Amino acid sequence: MNGSRPNLVFVRVGAKSLHREWLEEPGQRNWDLQLSQYDDDPEIGRGGDLPLSKDKGTKWDSIYRYLANDPGLLDRYRYIAFMDDDIVFTKRDLNRYFEICEENELLLAQPSLHPDSHVCYPILLQCPFTKLRYTNFVECMATAIRTDYLRTFLPHMESVVSGWGMDRIWTGTMPDPEFRSAVIDEISMIHTRPHATGAVYDAFDDQQISPKQEMERLLSSYDGVPDRMLAYGAMSKTGRRLNATMTQALNGISLMVNALRYRNCGRAFKSGAAMMARAVTLARYQPQPIRKILPEGA
Predict the structure, then answer these.
(1) How many other C-beta atoms are found inside a 10 Å radius of the C-beta of residue 87?
(2) How far apart (Å, rounded) are the C-alpha atoms in residues 47 and 33?
(3) What is the pLDDT of residues 260-287, one digit of tens each?
(4) Which ranges of the chain does DSSP label H, i.e. alpha helix?
(5) Distance, CA of 181 to CA of 177 (rounded, Å)
(6) How far are the Cα atoms of 37, 69, 132, 177, 285 from residue 85, in angstroms, in the given order?
(7) Domain 7-114+131-235 classification at class level
(8) Strand 53-54 and strand 241-242: pairing?
(9) Domain residues of the chain, as ranges?
(10) DSSP at 125
(11) Are 154 and 80 in contact (CB under 8 A)?
């Protein structure tokens, strides 16, 4: 790796992007900022550390083109975090995000979601009892990927446009997926926009792209995709490894006790109750590799 900063934050930016807030705190960064602009306003793309990328596509097809056009980038950084532009996050937490990934040898991770967030999946809400939870699901919203793994995952991204479904497979398309992907509870972010809204979804409509149909096609081309999102282990705040039963129980308790704090309290409570049941029924769960289904004769 070259340069003084070992990590990269890549963000697609538009007129309402919140990325400037990530730079406001005093102090040093352990990450460079790459802006990828999809709006025409020339002011939007100011402030990045690398030359501005302009791409009228959507998030993940733009990311694939960007990486394919500069393959040496993966040699220059240890982790790359691919961020949405509607996230409230601090410079300090972004620094810590990369530190935790490195300390725990994670290949794939995301920050947990603050209770004030718009949330699609309750499992991603911050759990106050743990430092991080090992999961078989990491959402596409603010994913950090270690670059040696990203290099091997790139072929899986070649035909992806919306990104839907990719978050179901990338925690398993590695030889030994156990304890390599996590939701990080020590830090959290606020997701400010409701699910399936914003400029990127307007673009999907304009291009007549159905994210749901793309997800169905993607998932049908892999064998071993988990049928549910699970946290199967955790790291306590004191650094002790917790088993699946303890992890599910603590996660379930957190969701049920704090349900009234969340935007969708009923869904959070129901999800917490399901986790309590899985603490018993899925106590021995371990993630298994997910494999691409090859065409006949291949």
Answers:
(1) 23
(2) 8
(3) 999 999 999 999 999 999 999 999 999 9
(4) 59-69, 73-76, 91-103, 147-157, 166-169, 199-206, 211-220, 244-257, 265-281
(5) 7
(6) 11, 23, 24, 29, 35
(7) alpha beta
(8) unpaired
(9) 7-114+131-235
(10) B
(11) no
